[in-house]
Amino acid sequence: MNNFYDWIFEQDLDLNKEILSTQRGNFSYRDIQQGVAEYVQLFETLGDIKGKRIALIVPSVYDFTSLALAISKLQGITVPLSPLLRHEDLISVLDFVSPHIVFTVTEHNGFHLWETINQWAASNLKETIILENKEDMKWNQTIHIGEKYPLEEGQIQIIGCTSGSTGTPKGIVYDVDFVQRVGKGINIGLDIFENDKLFLLAPATGVFGLAWILSTMQSKTHLVLSENFNFPEIIQLFESHASKKFISTPSLFKAMDLFSKSLGKQVLNQVSLLCVFGELVTKEFLQTYSDFPAKIMSFLGITEFGTVMYTENDIRNDMNWTLLPNIKYKFDSQSEERIGELLYQSERPFLGYYQRPDLTNDVYKDGWFFSGDLGRTNDDGKIELVGRKKDMIKKGGQQVIPGEIESILEKHPDVLRVVVVGIPHPVFGEQIIAFVQKNRSDLNSQELYEYCNLRIARYKIPDQIRFIEEFPMVQGKIDKVALRKKATEQE
Asked: Which residue range forms the structural domain that includes residue 28?
């Protein structure tokens, strides 16, 4: 199969079966098929989209899914972008990926997406088509005339972009095989049956959200997922569906559990299997849910590589990992404690970073993918993960690059220097702490919070801003270990 539409629909299907549910309603295969047909018709008015990059900033999961399938069917390239992106993040990503076409809602959570995108296209002097949707009305079209962007070649289906205010964002190239890998992990780890109904609490309109949607559709499994993180709405959606299998980041699951209990409800008691993924599973989380009646398991998925491992046993008993079939591993080098970086190999290779062969060569060598995960094998031959090589902060399932926040804050005229670290948080997995040196004595944290709020996505805004007179140093570099210790001790 060379496109997602054929992968799903070229099989024996009951087109009346409900396969996708959100706050907007329940959708059958026939509904999705109809949505795809309507978007194919729309694309026909725009000309051939083969090889064109089409950015989607579309909170409606039904429209997001139908668009992605239509794009794939017509041999275009889907570029899913979060509606949570704000001005500098959004401009940075648009500059990087250079989309031929952008689908966007007018505004989201008070931020005017269309206005920002339109201003970007007007100043870019390149041919760009923007389709704007306001309150579920028809798509309004704006065309900017200019030099044509080059087309893509090959079997690219998706370009997943990280946002970044520091330098150029990173794009990862995906194809059908990547989504098939995700689907294989879901089916094996969750022991999927056609009559199952999965509840997914995670960002729905990103690369992994799309991969879950497409792979469950292909396996004929009903997926229920929230289009937002409004917990009263999420609880209502969950109560309206008899979902026995719940997939979430640990922090989002805990937040939903706490909120439902504050309402005097025990809605999660119907769950028979809880799958947590996307961030560190802390000892505190396992202790909190030591008596939770469902089995708790986990997946390990890598943004670049797909799903690689899952836990067979309940993670409250052990946190040992089992590789998916056709995934091989080895360690790059190991310390005296047998800890080393995990390298993975698959029959379906990593496609690489978008327009960055240098980055691809850094992590993919001689057929092995360098994951950045640090691990070891135990006496039973199972893999144990012990940490990450880099300082990536994972908050509520979202990846946060400290350098992005540091760069934004250091642009403030009254800030001298910023260092951002992550420390454990009982609900969100990690929280973001920004240590700031200031050159104006009356500068306060509220001013900096407001400064960030206008420039970066909400989940990247530091949870705490702490002023510091002098940074601890070690061998001429800022000692982030000391800063993390300082931040933890002050909790």
From this structure: 4-174
